[in-house]
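quick q for whoever's on today - can somebody do inverse folding on this one?? i tried earlier but teh output was garbage lol. tokens:
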């Protein structure tokens, strides 16, 4: 069981590191990863001010991106703002599913992390990458140990921009 958890956590860390490597959000230079709880209002404001663009980008993605390899290729073409908006839109869609309060809170922490922190910044200093990896490892471990989530669910939520299916899995073309 511990080996399975380790494998899943390693994949979540790798996925978050890939997101960090290929994405950039611009204006997050002075923000700390550690103070997530202090910024939900900032995230709400950002989402509300960019609501139309988030919806348009998610619709574009769902209509035009057909599989994992195209997702990876196309994602690199998006601007930093578009990358940030795509992930915000994905997590907002995921939040529409039926979750316990504890799961919703956990998912909201991922949304805050992705919107308000420099994980998408172009600056890839070792300290920031270490913090991102640590945060991702803790986020995934908490989900597995306290929420009973498995690798497929973690991947469906944070491993791909592909649409999450009603059974809380992702379309096989995005695995």
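ok took a stab at it. sequence:
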């Amino acid at each position: 069981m511990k080996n399975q958890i380790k494998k899943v956590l390693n994949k979540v860390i790798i996925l978050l590191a890939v997101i960090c490597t290929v994405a950039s959000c611009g204006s997050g230079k002075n923000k700390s990863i550690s103070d997530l709880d202090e910024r939900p209002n900032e995230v709400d404001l950002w989402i509300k001010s960019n609501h139309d663009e988030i919806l348009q980008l998610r619709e574009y993605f769902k209509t035009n991106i057909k599989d994992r390899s195209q997702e990876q290729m196309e994602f690199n073409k998006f601007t930093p703002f578009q990358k940030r908006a795509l992930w915000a839109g994905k997590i907002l869609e995921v939040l529409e599913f039926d979750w316990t309060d504890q799961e919703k809170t956990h998912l909201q922490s991922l949304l805050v992390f992705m919107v308000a922190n420099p994980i998408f910044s172009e600056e890839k200093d070792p300290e920031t990458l270490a913090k991102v990896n640590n945060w991702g490892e803790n986020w995934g471990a908490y989900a597995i140990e306290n929420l009973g989530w498995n690798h497929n669910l973690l991947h469906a939520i944070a491993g791909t921009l592909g649409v999450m299916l009603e059974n809380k899995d992702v379309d096989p073309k995005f695995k």
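fwiw The chain has one domain: 2-24+39-174. also DSSP finds eight helices and no strands in the chain. so keep that in mind when u check it
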